[in-house]
Design a protein that fits this description.
There is one protein chain. This protein is of the alpha/beta class. The protein contains seven helices and nine strands. The chain is about 35% helix and about 15% strand. Strands 3-2-1-4-8-5-9 form a seven-stranded mixed beta sheet, sandwiched between helices. The longest helix is centred in the N-terminal third of the chain and has 17 residues.
């Protein structure tokens, strides 16, 4: 199985490089980073933007899947030491940790009380249709290889540009304060949900974590 992660910025690199290097000793890990010399066990991909965008993880995974023609499992770098690596996936589903209903009271609808209107705006933006009734929690996901990844990437970039104009340093939502300190393009689960709806990608929730961490 091919794994992917992203680690950008001196603070994050210093904090997570040991766990990343430990994980990549036993697993084939591709990393998007601005400090490739710190990750000798990983296959490094240079992060070149002058601002950090959380959304880049989605495009990174899409491009890796296109290149290697196989499923890519993405894990945020602060979760690498906690997850099970022997998970079994089918050939067609997008596996995630959690999906949150946008029609119920939960942490997502409470975090995005004003931004909930995005469910009405994102699908038309990419000429998609369907019921936008969930948000994908994005620290962990596993994308299957799909024949239409070129189209998915094209739409992903459209969504990225739109969402980065909403979720950035000027975001007024105080519940997102900790994210905007780091960069832009957070709340990337909106983009993942829109892509999965337009392209009818089946989604399955899965337990990622070792029992010792629960």
């Amino acid at each position: 199985m091919l794994f992917a992660t992203m680690c950008v910025g001196n603070e994050f690199v210093s904090l997570h490089k040991d766990s990343i290097n430990a994980f990549s000793k036993d697993n084939q890990l591709h990393i998007l980073t601005d400090s490739p010399s710190e990750f000798s066990n990983s296959i490094s991909h240079q992060y070149t933007r002058d601002v950090f965008s959380y959304y880049e993880k989605i495009n990174f995974v899409i491009r890796l899947s296109k290149k290697y023609k196989q499923r890519i499992t993405y894990i945020d770098c602060d979760c690498l030491s906690k997850i099970k690596t022997n998970l079994i996936f089918d050939d067609t589903s997008l596996y995630v940790e959690t999906m949150f209903s946008l029609d119920e009271k939960n942490v997502i609808t409470e975090t995005f009380p004003n931004e909930i209107i995005l469910r009405e705006k994102l699908l038309p933006l990419i000429n998609g249709t369907g019921n936008f009734n969930y948000y994908i929690y994005e620290p962990l996901f596993s994308l299957p290889f799909l024949s239409n990844l070129d189209d998915i990437e094209y739409d992903s970039i459209i969504l990225q540009n739109y969402l980065e104009n909403i979720f950035n340093y000027n975001t007024k939502n105080i519940k997102l304060k900790k994210y905007k300190k780091q960069g832009i393009g957070f709340a990337e689960g909106w983009g993942m949900a829109a892509l999965s709806i337009k392209y009818n990608i089946p989604i399955k929730e899965i337990c990622w974590f070792n029992k010792s961490w629960i």
